[in-house]
Amino acid sequence: MTQAVPSRLRIRPGDPATAAATAPTFDARQAPEHVFEARDVSIFYGAKQALAGVDLGIRHGQITALIGPSGCGKTTFLRSLNRMNDSVGGFRIEGSILYHGHDIYGDQVDRVEVRRRIGMVFQKPNPFPKSIYDNVAWAPRNLGLRRGLDERVEQALRGAALWDEVKDRLKDSALGLSGGQQQRLCIARAIAIEPDVLLLDEPASALDPIATQAIEELMHSLKGRFTIVIVTHNMQQAARVADRTAFFSLETAGPKPVGSLIEVDATEKIFASPQDPRTRDYVSGRFG
Amino acid sequence: MSAGPGFDPTAPLTASGNLRRRQAVSRAAEIGATAAAVAAIAVLALIVYTVVSRGAKAIDLDFIFTGYPTGVGPMLLGTIVIALVATAMAMPIGVLIALFLTEYAGSRAAGPLRLTLDLLNGLPSIILGLFVFALLVDHKQQSGFAGAVALAIIELPLIARGSQEVLLLVPKSLREASDALGVARWRSVLTVVLPTALGGIVTSTVLAVARAAGETAPLILASSVFDPKSFSVNPFEAMPNVPVWIYKLSEEGNPEGFTEAWGMSLLLVSFILFASLGARALLARSKRKLSS
Fold first, then answer.
1. Do A195 and B180 touch (CB under 8 A)?
2. pTM
3. A163-199 pLDDT, tens per residue?
4. What architecture is the B59-291 domain classified under in CATH?
5. pLDDT for residue A285
6. For testing the chain B interface, which of A75, A78, A111, A112 should be mutated: the one with the most B CBs within 10 Å?
7. pLDDT value, residue B291
8. Counting C-beta atoms within 10 Å of the first and last residue's C-beta, which end of chain A has fewer, N or C?
């Protein structure tokens, strides 16, 4: 559990496998900068192990999708990136997750500060029972970002592709919006404080196809500005939006099945020519 | 295993064996339970009827707005002041206890605390009266404030438990949302959780006030030697109040006093009924708002 915490940014010069894989799609001249470095991460809830030995780097400014069958620990992994699991009873993590080189679970780390930089959008839209404007303005107000608040709210709503639909009813309750609009409002709320990373936990799974398409277009427009990590059950969605895709599955070799990372690569590589047979079975729809 | 089902499957489908007796017992049980339920309603109806029929004739404007001997204005005012002071003490503490229970306490602390509140709620009010008497009145003087402290202790568990129930209804997803925005917990509590639960908190407070307003025993000890002629809003002397005055009038052998006592009872019962019904309606509304 104890790991040295490097104080400066860590830049991994890309191991040979991924470097080759990324060459056609990414600017190979610059080595990918990792926002997150998970090293041998294992997660337990009480006596139950949810995740074992995950090594995963998440690259700056890209969209990384975590896919895999239910119960394989991908949401657990996502929530451990901004310490949302801390309040879950019996939660315990081994290994380390470095964020720009700082251990997310380090002794001096304040989890409120972690979440200030690493925002999250949940599976079910969860707007506050307040007006549309107040939903977006709430976090900036509470973080002391009061100057130019109207402008900030407008920018966030524009960024979430919601402005044109709500600009005439900013004072109306957010609960009157449709599910897809509510989810985009939650994204606007998250980006209003300009975080570094956005974690999206199946953000479209409760939405209809049209709202889903809007969310996916939104992700494309947010790419680059934010590093995005998205958990999705929907493989086509991963294929459409993600630069890189990590496939999680249940490792059944041990005495008890436990979630683990099987393979991570450029998205087209994962879907066209995966290295691991389990990945191949999953993406071709043979199981899960 | 027996060979057959033990009855003739082709017989007509009328009651057979001891079914007739079993059905009679079942009917008797149902009638008994229904009668008990009706009795509860009847008791309330009878009380309200008695109070209204005997008290209505006492009530007019003079009765409400003048002092002894033509009216009971000072007592009404005193009860309002004492209840306000009590609520001003009990509400903030009660809400803080509820917040502790729902937002901060682990299950190890929450269980005993809930039990404590329930025990506090079950304490006889005369005991609270004695406690306050020993603490604030003995060797000093009676005061509306001492009475208010006793009533605050009565209100406290009601407000805390009621608020806690509504706070538990605030969806976990809202707390997650504010957590994920990097805002400190107390700010989330103040600006998201409390406003969402406000309706229910107000409701439980109103119910607690309705319960405390009629408490007599603590006030007999804390605020019973008063002048029924003078309107007083100073809580640091004995204040006229409705329950003690009802008690005093009923102790005297004066028929006019009885009528006055019934008149005050009617005012008190009306306040409690309307406050309770209104509060419940409000609670139902805010619960609907939360669950939608």
1. no
2. 0.79
3. 999 999 999 999 999 999 999 999 999 999 999 999 9
4. Orthogonal Bundle (1.10)
5. 82
6. A112
7. 61
8. N
